[in-house]
Each structure stands twice: as structure tokens, then as C-alpha cells.
Amino acid sequence: MKGDFSRDTFDPAKRYSRVLQQQGRVQLDADWNEQGAILLHQLRTMARDLIGAHGAPAAAPGFEIIADPFDKRLPKEVAATLKPGGFLIGPGRYYVDGVLVENDRYLPYHRQTGFPFADGTDPDTLKDTRHSMLVYLDVWERLVTAAEDPAIAATADSQFHMAIARATRNDYYARFVEFLGVRLVPPSSLYLKYQPERSHDAYTHKVSDEHDAVLDAIVRMDIEKARHAARHHMQESLLRHSELNDLISRDE
């Protein structure tokens, strides 16, 4: 899935240090994204210049490969997870070409997300100690959307309602939205557990369509249509939450 970005305006060759917002101008996603890209470029360039192509802090070197279950640094419960031919990935931080990567805990190699990565990396093959193995840290960036992290959709939904509340100067509704926060959107885990026939994608698309209807009416300055679209969205939201709460109550 790709993000909906108008354009990517960052160009390191221009040597810009920041993007300034002007009063009375339309705010574009490209301006905000370029500001973030400028700062990220500066930070990663500085890290690469100071650390080099790769390196780790002495106090918390991350991604160390540990194969010895008798390593005194390992807590007993962690050492017990080491299997023949297996190894652990140590916690800490590491920098690759200026990019920071972090590991919060001792992680068995075979429990990584996406494992096994290719033929010959399955647990049975790892037990065969007759062969040498090369273990390396592969670092890349990827776009994460609400499909992978539902909390993004929840935050966006809350911000949408808050923007409407403030624009209409509805202090009561603003306080209500602030109280609910991200709880406005049930997490995908609840839908997958209690309503498996409904995909979370379908849920978010329906909510997005309702938001678009409200926003379109506001842009067109059609007060009655905006009021109708907002009322419809709130009624549908109440119905969705009620149905889900009923299913949860029956399960308890």
C-alpha cells in the first residue's frame, strides 16, 4: 500500500536548512514532509560522519550474535531458550550508514518477524553445525500505513473529529473527543476476534468514506449537507460500537 502524497520536494543538492511557513498561505503536505526530510538527512549525515559506515555505542551495542548458553551476561530464562545450532540477537542500538536500528530484548534468531527468510534458514538447517553461516544485519525503511498499524487510523480519526469540533467552536464536543482519544476507533484485534467476517480494511474504508462526505460538504460550504453527513457518521459509529460491545459482552 502506498501513501497519498502530493509530491516529494526534498532535494539534498539544494542545501536547504529548513522550510518556513507563511501566514495566510495554504499548508501543503509537501512542505511538512520536506521539513522532516531535511532534519532526517542532517541527523543521518551527522551520524554517518561521526560513527562511520556502521557502529554501535559502547554502553549498549545492539544486534550481537550470541550462541553460547553459558554466557554470563544472559539471564537464566533467556539462556534456556538457546537450542542446538541456534543463537540470540542481543539488545541495544546499532547504526548502519547513519540509520539507527534498535532491538529491545534478546531475540532468538528463528523468532524474527518474517522468518524463515529463504531456503536454508529454517530451524532444522540451523541445527546442522557442519556448515559455516554468515549472519548480517540488513537495514531498510518501509512505509507503514493504517493497514499494518491500526493506531495510525485511530489517531487520524480522533484528529479529524477534533478539527471539526474546533472549527465549529463546539467546546462540549471537543472535550468529548479529547476524553475518548484513540478509543474512538476499536483496535483491529477486536474486529478480527469478534467479527471475523468483517475485515478491518473494510471498516476503515467505510469510516473514511463517511469522513470524506463531511469534509466535502464543509468545503462546499453546504451547512445542511454537512450537518446531515456528520449526523449519519455519528449514528453509524454508535451502531458499530454497540454491535461490537454486544459481542464482547456475550463472550465475557
How is this structure best described in words?
- The chain has 252 residues and is mainly α.
- It is built from 8 helices and 6 strands; from the N terminus they run H-E-E-H-E-E-E-E-H-H-H-H-H-H.
- The protein folds into 3 domains: 40 residues, no CATH class; 72 residues, no CATH class; 102 residues.
- The two termini are 36 Å apart.
- The mean pLDDT is 81.
Distance between the termini: 36 Å
Number of helices: 8
The number of strands is 6
Spatial extent as radius of gyration:
25 Å
Sheet-strand content, in percent, reads 5-15%
Give the overall pLDDT as a whole number: 81
What is the domain tally?
A: 3
Strand order of the largest sheet: 1-4-5
Low-confidence stretches: none
Biggest sheet architecture: 3 strands, antiparallel
Give the H and E element order.
HEEHEEEEHHHHHH
User: What form results from the Cα inertia axes?
Assistant: extended
Structural class estimated from helices and strands = mainly alpha
The share of residues in helices is 40-55%
